[in-house]
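Design review, sub-item: ligand-bound model
Attendees: FS, YL, KQ
YL presented the inputs for the adenosine monophosphate complex:
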Amino acid sequence: LDVVTKVGRLWAELGTARDAGRSVGLVPTMGALHAGHASLIRQAASECNVVVTTLFVNPLQFGPNEDLDSYPRSFEADQALAGVSGSTHLFAPSVAEMYPHRVLTTVRVAELTELLEGASRPGHFDGVTTVVAKLFAMAGRCRAYFGEKDFQQLAVIRRMAADLSFPVEVIGCRTVREEDGVALSSRNAYLSAAERSAAPVLYEALSVGKALVEQGATDPGAIRAAMADRVESEPLASLDYAAVVEPLSLATPDRLDGEVRLLLAARIGTTRLIDNLGALCAQPSQSSGTTPQGKEVQTCAGA
Ligand code: AMP
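KQ shared the predicted structure:
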């Protein structure tokens, strides 16, 4: 595993690799790597010749009262896990290397960033899109791997890459969970033992919502309420939002149809966790077409 800290060297290494006909995979992370990150790296390694895992705790995407200073950092362990998972390069720039000047240029995706996480964390997605745009510019033509765990982030980055014509194919990867359903997250390290025992309530509430959708419920309000009730039945949890959205626009339709995404954000104690799950409505949508062979096709946009 080649540790790279300078933008110039990353650019040169990847340029040389591409000139030699090698494909590039990019896995952006903030470090504190766990099995969720490892699954992204493994998928990249199975599809690309060169895999760059990036490790950068991006100050731009943290709000003034968020956990930038306390965010877990574990460089040696990250280096080991990235290497065994199939990463060929670890790009770990300093803040000064990423932001050598006062930042005057930012990238902002409208609409998709204004709801859900965007409403709760003002400015967060502008920080994310700005750093990811920089990473895309540094990496050049590549496939970039992001987790569905951060579903809205994935939708926002897909849209940014398309709108700005980055030569990057954005690939969404399934959420890796603990046996009790808790989605792996670097922030799970903040949970006390009692809080960790309460954390499965997010996945349970999402599963309640998914079951309702699959049983034919079409009123988003009723599904939201059922998920909210489940979260609030856990004394250590307090709900931030529960949502049922169309997977590409992230808008809540009046009536559910086709593929939907259920999303939750809640605090467990003081730790804010997010999770989401896809569900397919019981009633096939009017617009679902048929193939020439007559087989039903169900669009599965972005899920
Ligand atoms: P982070 O380091 O939290 O910024 O995450 C880096 C990447 O890993 C993002 O694309 C996340 O969506 C993804 N990721 C985080 N947790 C998981 C998980 N449990 N399963 C799959 N991907 C994940």
